[in-house]
Amino acid sequence: MIYDVIIIGGGAAGYTVAAHLANLKDKRVLIIERNPSPMRKLAITGKGRCNLTNDCDIETVLNNIFTNARFMRSSLTAFTPRDTMAMFESLGVPLKTERGGRVFPQSDKSANVVEALRRASRADVVTDRVAKVIKQGDFFKVRGKNTVYSARTVVIATGGVSYSKMGSSGDGYALAQSFGHTIVPPRPTLVPLETIEDCAPLAGLTLKNVSLTLKQHDRTLFKEQGELLFTHFGVSGPLVLSASCFVTSPTDCRLFIDLKPALDDKTLDARILRDFATNKNRQFKNALSGLLPEKFIDVFVERSGIAPDCRVNEVSKTQRRRLVELFKAFELTVTATRPIDEAVITDGGVCVREIEPRTMQSKLVQGLYFAGEILDVAAFTGGFNLQVAFSTAYAVGRACSRENAHNGD
Question: How far apart are CA 292 and CA 4, in angstroms?
């Protein structure tokens, strides 16, 4: 079973490489995917809606890549977010752009994106787990469970180790190492955070339009406004996932939630006074419904140090100042990131110093390429990680097209 190109990994990057090779005449392309259902991780992105890129310029993408952005400049220049959008539109997937430049299919169904890539690839697909890849002369031998496949070119697009239930197993790391490649130790990123404070009473509560600041040793590492979710172990949600990218060690790592980012201290104090004036004969614990979600009130009252049954008209100016501080900086102490299995992406992977950035070809082995999350490149949420996958896949597809055209002469 001899192929021109074998792609190991049937995720977004692997199928996009195949799609870019689809017009090669008389060339056989094979995708080897260990799971019966390919692109499972792509299917769940954006809560099943598939935030497939971000409608922005290259510099904005690079600014949102926090690991090895410089390496990505060539491939992003060759295949921009607008190119990604044009590709999917041409594949029959109408798109829309939402807050923050996030691009989704108009249908809000990731299945449409998955199906479009599946149709466009036109590759042979087998369900198998690659155990070993070796190079003999001009050909690679790819050993599956019971079959050996051969090709002049091999693309490793197996992803990282996050979301293992979606098929990410880290198999590609061992394959890369067998050819002498260095693997930067993978760590979870875009991952929920555990806190020393008991957040179980707040589990399921979403706070919208809040500001989150991450500090370590009193140095601000991250600050952004958006949405946050409390869980039984700590916090999650878009803000926390982005903040987690800066948690290399949880030592003295603290989160500060500004519950009222649109109000400065003076304005907030005036707002509290107005609410208290309306509820002056009520107990303190019953006078906060206009300022906080119901589920948050008991925890907030306990943290404030004010007796729950204290009458509002008895709250002192000093206590009110404490309330303002609490509204503007509700503090949580980070103890750990959640396991890598719960991370959206993996930070780490094949060392990019060993990869040619224009083609994604190995600098160590001719004909060996890498695409997508297996590379040591990581970005924030907002469609940037999928754009990395699509841009690296395009670089591989273009290089393989040229290589195979030359071999066919």
Answer: 61
pLDDT in tens, 236-288: 999 999 999 999 888 999 999 999 999 999 999 999 999 999 888 899 999 99
Q: What does the pLDDT read at residue 409?
A: 42
Cα–Cα distance, 324 to 202 (Å, whole number):
21
Gap between the Cα atoms of 27 and 5, Å rounded: 8
Q: What is the share, in percent, of the chain residues with pLDDT greater than 70?
A: 96
Give all strands (DSSP E) within 98-203, no chain letters: 102-105, 124-127, 132-136, 139-143, 148-156, 183-189, 193-195
Residue with tokens 């299919």: 105
Report the 10 Å Cβ neighbour count for 92. Answer: 11
Phi, psi at 117, each rounded to 5° = -70, -35
Burial label for 172, CB within 10 Å (0-12, 13-18, 19+), is: buried
32 pLDDT higher than 80: yes
Q: 105: helix, coil or strand? A: strand
> CB under 8 Å to 216, separation ≥6 — which residues?
246, 247, 249, 251, 252, 253, 254
Q: Is 322 exposed, middle or buried (0-12, 13-18, 19+ CB in 10 A)?
A: middle
Is the pLDDT assigned to residue 150 strictly greater than 50?
Answer: yes
In the numeric block, the tokens 């149709």 are attached to 119
Tell me, what amino acid is at 311? Answer: R
pLDDT of residue 83: 98
User: 140 with 48: CB under 8 angstroms?
Assistant: no
DSSP-based three-state secondary structure for 165 = helix
Q: What is residue 195's predicted lDDT score, i.e. its pLDDT?
A: 97
Dihedral over Cα of 316, 317, 319, 324: its sign: positive
**Strand (E) positions, 183-231?**
183-189, 193-195, 206-216, 219-230
User: What residues have CB less than 8 Å from 4, skipping those under 6 apart?
Assistant: 24, 27, 28, 29, 151, 152, 153, 404, 407
165 has pLDDT over 90: no
H or E segment and range at residue 300 = helix 294-304
184 - beta bridge partners? Answer: 349
The SS3 call for residue 264 is coil
> What burial letters (b/e) apply to 203-221, b meaning 16+ CB within 10 Å?
eebebeebbbbbbbeeeee
3-state secondary structure of 96: strand
